[in-house]
Amino acid sequence: MLPTPAQLYQSIFKARKPWPPDFSKLTPKHKFSLERRFRRRMKLKFARPRLHQAVKIGQWSTAAFVLVYGIFYMPSTTDTNIFTPVRTWAKEFQQSIWSTSPAKKTETRYQKEV
């Protein structure tokens, strides 16, 4: 005895409340509670934590890149601006990283000769 298609879609358990309810007969307080419950469930259903995290990281990194580029590397229309001291310090710092000081050059020469 196989069940008929109509019997497959019927539940053997009777629902406690009819769904969807007749909203014209509900009180405003009950309507609001149903709406709040629906919004909470939809927020949970459509939440995408990995996507939100990726978008947030992308936004912060883009903002940081634009800020650093604007302060240190963007060409200005005038010779001096408020970032000129910072830019000169950064250029000197970069040159000091990629080259050795004259005192260290002489020290390394003496070490090689000895």
Describe what you observe in this structure.
The chain is mainly alpha-helical and 114 residues long. The protein has two domains: 21-74, no CATH class; 78-114, no CATH class. The longest helix is centred in the middle third of the chain and has 25 residues, at 49-73. It contains five helices and no strands. The protein starts with a helix and ends with a helix. It has helices spanning 5-9, 28-45, 49-73, 84-98, 102-113.
Distance between the termini: 102 Å
Q: If you average the pLDDT, what whole number results?
A: 85
The profile of the biggest β sheet is: none
SSE string, helix = H, strand = E?
HHHHH
Q: Which class best fits the helix and strand makeup? A: mainly alpha
Shape: elongated
Binned strand content: under 5%
Radius of gyration: 35 Å
How many domains? The number is 2
The helical percent reads 55-70%
Low-confidence spans: pLDDT under 50, at least 5 residues?
none
Q: Number of DSSP helices? A: 5
Number of strands: 0
